[in-house]
């Protein structure tokens, strides 16, 4: 009977595949498994059929069974990811189901989830459930966590490495299970044989079947003994977040940023990082013939000539070699009391440059922000986001100036395209650094026609239809600064204001409304060095109110024209002084009226002249007095008293006429 016609029943080494029983006969297998490692087992098998359809095997579960001398079975199960045929010899490679995550890559955002929650979500989205949660610690939810152009495998591995979560696989007939762990309690003893005897190979022997450890090495290495990290949190910028964790050595590792926002979270991460550094301080390696040796399991060594070597260990890596002729392995282990944290081997994705994104917000809102002036965005690579307030974390917006309640502030609005950079190149830490125009969000003016215009132009919210603007026109001989307030404009000047117009005009037009100027204390001066001043009220009234004195000086002529009546009311005295002449001319009558006395005085002569009659009348006495007094009528003169009349000359009285009549 040829090898290919043999049956596996009763053999120490057998394989089960979807092809059916004994279609493949296992001849040998080598492989490696380890904590935080994707196991790989390479199988050589033979078949009587040189035309087996290996597509029925690739991508399917395959189980290898190792049977010991005492009939104890050890199973190794995996997914066949590769098959090579060479006539009737077939080579198969087994990997864990987790390996398949390396065949898929994505850009995806996770918000407000812990790392265990994210890892389980990734597994579930890809249809995998063969894992066991043995985690004991508590984990801080990550506000924003991005899988960016990386495989799902790299994504979950780097997250677990960052949190100090380790993993390994356990095997059963037809299946393998991934164990998520963060504590030594996840390690169980080797089945059947928890204590392994140390029995070196006799001289001249390369292998013995007995379950034994035939070589065992202990390695001690120098490692850092201190770890320091720090970070910064925008909501509490003055809070000290520096963390110092000390071990047994003096050499220190410092890293920034630490990836935390609170001190207690930093303390926990610092301990994880130091434990990661100290893993290499003491480790063991060896070889054995124990089929049950597997990564993640615990054993106790006995019989070693060095007494302190006889202790408990956790297997961290195992290299298997098995054939029909026998089984052996080599292994690496750590003391069981070592706090194991995985090395951060998986590289973090970096975005060295910038990207653009679209500002998003709650439905119906044009502006969506928080008290820190942060916004939400949706990246062009985001296939899951719904362009709403849940598309991203709150993202800070860089401003030209940012002080304590002062600075420049322009908030990007929903629909605008913004430029996003990433702190330290970290996709988890976006920062908006600017805005750009596009085919839908176009520039305020037509280009290149208006290429000399620069502007700051806003848009009324909600609904648009208006704007405030400060615009600069730099076109030669058309230079202009234009300012528009869509509604109100308020200017506060706490000291002086100076406006200089070198040439041309200054025009203020108020289409509708009132204008008021209030000087609480001080003076108001208008000086026209050369030129005219015109004040016109087309319709309405003009009112002046002065509570103190008022002085007007006109060095040239002054002309006032009133097309209606003029009324002056003076509560005190009224004085009018003219160095030259005064002419008062009325088309009708002129009335001078005094409540008490009225004095009309001339320095030389005074003429009273009427076109017809002139009457001087007093209610009691009337007196005309001068050094000489003449009453003359060109035709006649009458002096008359209604009751009595007296003409008296103190010295001499002369009555003269062409005819004198005394009656």
At a glance:
The chain is mainly beta. The protein is built from 3 helices and 28 strands. It is 6% helix and 27% strand.
Structure description:
This protein is rod-shaped. Strands 1, 2, 3, 4, 5, 6, 12, 13, 17, 18, 19 and 20 form a 12-stranded mixed sheet that branches. It has 4 domains: 96 residues, Pnp Oxidase, Chain A (Roll); 247 residues, Baseplate protein-like domains (Phage tail protein beta-alpha-beta fold); 92 residues, OB fold (Dihydrolipoamide Acetyltransferase, E2P) (Beta Barrel); 32 residues, no CATH class. The longest helix is centred in the middle third of the chain and has 16 residues. The chain has 663 residues and is mainly beta. It is 6% helix and 27% strand. Strand 24 and strand 25 form a beta hairpin.
SSE layout:
Blueprint: E1 13-16, E2 25-34, E3 40-46, E4 61-67, E5 73-86, E6 89-95, E7 105-110, H1 115-125, E8 131-134, E9 145-151, H2 152-163, E10 166-172, E11 175-181, E12 195-197, E13 213-220, E14 226-229, E15 243-246, E16 252-255, H3 263-278, E17 282-288, E18 298-302, E19 312-323, E20 326-335, E21 355-360, E22 376-379, E23 396-397, E24 417-422, E25 430-436, E26 453-457, E27 469-473, E28 480-484
Parallel strand pairs: 8-11, 12-18, 14-16, 23-25
Antiparallel strand pairs: 1-4, 2-3, 2-19, 3-6, 4-5, 5-6, 7-9, 10-11, 13-17, 14-15, 17-20, 18-19, 19-20, 21-22, 21-24, 24-25, 26-27, 27-28
Helix pairs in contact: 1-2
């Amino acid at each position: 009977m040829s090898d290919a016609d043999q049956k596996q029943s009763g053999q120490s080494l057998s394989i089960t595949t979807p092809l059916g029983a004994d279609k493949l006969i296992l001849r040998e297998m080598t492989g490696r498994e380890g904590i935080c490692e994707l196991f790989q087992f390479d199988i050589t098998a033979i078949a009587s059929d040189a035309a087996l359809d290996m597509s029925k095997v690739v991508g399917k579960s395959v189980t290898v069974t190792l049977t010991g001398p005492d009939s104890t079975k050890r199973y190794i199960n995996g997914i066949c990811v590769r098959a090579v045929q060479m006539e009737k010899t077939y080579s198969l490679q087994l990997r864990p189901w987790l390996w398949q995550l390396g065949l898929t890559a994505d850009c995806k955002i996770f918000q407000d989830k812990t790392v265990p929650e994210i890892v389980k979500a990734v597994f579930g989205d890809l249809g995998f459930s063969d894992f066991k949660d043995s985690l004991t610690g508590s984990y801080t939810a990550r506000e924003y966590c991005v899988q960016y152009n990386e495989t799902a495998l790299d994504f979950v591995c780097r997250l677990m490495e960052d949190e100090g979560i380790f993993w390994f696989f356990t095997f059963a007939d037809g299946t393998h299970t991934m164990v998520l762990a963060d504590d030594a309690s996840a390690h169980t003893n080797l089945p059947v044989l928890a204590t392994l005897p140390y029995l070196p190979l006799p001289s001249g022997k390369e292998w013995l079947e007995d379950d034994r450890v035939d070589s065992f090495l202990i390695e001690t290495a120098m490692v850092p003994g201190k770890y320091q990290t720090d970070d910064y949190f925008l909501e509490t910028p003055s809070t000290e977040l520096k963390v110092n964790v000390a071990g047994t050595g003096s050499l220190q590792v410092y890293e920034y940023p630490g990836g935390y926002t609170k001190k207690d979270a930093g303390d926990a991460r610092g301990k994880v990082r130091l434990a990661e550094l100290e893993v290499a301080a003491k480790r063991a390696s060896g070889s054995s013939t124990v089929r049950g040796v597997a990564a993640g399991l615990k054993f106790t060594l006995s019989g070693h000539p060095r007494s302190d070597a006889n202790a408990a260990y956790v297997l961290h890596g195992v290299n298997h070699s098995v054939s029909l002729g026998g089984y052996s392995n080599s292994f690496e282990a750590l003391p069981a009391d070592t706090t194991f944290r995985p090395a951060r081997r998986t590289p973090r994705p970096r975005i060295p440059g910038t990207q653009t994104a679209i500002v998003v917000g709650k439905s119906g809102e044009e502006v969506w922000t928080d008290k820190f002036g942060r916004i939400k965005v949706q990246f062009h690579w985001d296939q899951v986001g719904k362009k709403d307030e849940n598309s991203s974390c709150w993202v800070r917006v860089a401003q030209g100036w940012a002080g304590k309640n002062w600075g420049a502030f322009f908030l990007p609005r929903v629909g605008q395209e913004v430029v996003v950079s990433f702190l330290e190149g970290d996709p988890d830490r976006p920062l908006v650094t600017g805005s750009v125009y596009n085919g839908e969000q176009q520039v305020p003016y037509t280009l290149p026609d208006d290429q000399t215009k620069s502007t700051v132009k806003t848009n009324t919210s909600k609904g648009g239809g208006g704007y405030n603007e400060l615009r600069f026109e730099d076109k030669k001989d058309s230079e202009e600064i234009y300012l528009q307030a869509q509604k109100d404009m308020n200017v506060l000047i706490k000291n002086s204001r100076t406006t200089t117009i070198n040439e041309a005009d200054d025009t203020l037009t108020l289409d509708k409304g009132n204008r008021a100027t209030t000087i609480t204390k001080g003076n108001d001066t208008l000086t026209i060095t050369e030129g005219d001043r015109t004040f016109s009220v087309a319709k309405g009234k003009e009112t002046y109110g002065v509570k103190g004195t008022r002085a007007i000086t006109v060095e040239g002529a002054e002309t006032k024209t009133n097309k209606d009546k003029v009324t002056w009311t003076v509560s005190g005295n009224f004085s009018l002084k003219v160095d030259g002449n005064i002419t008062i001319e009325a088309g009708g009558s002129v009335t001078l009226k005094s409540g008490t006395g009225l004095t009309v005085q001339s320095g030389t002569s005074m003429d009273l002249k009427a076109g017809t009659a002139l009457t001087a009348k007093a209610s009691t006495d009337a007196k005309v007095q001068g050094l000489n007094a003449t009453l003359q009528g060109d035709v006649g003169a009458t002096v008359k008293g209604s009751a009595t009349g007296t003409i008296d000359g103190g010295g001499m009285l002369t009555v003269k006429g062409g005819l004198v009549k005394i009656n």
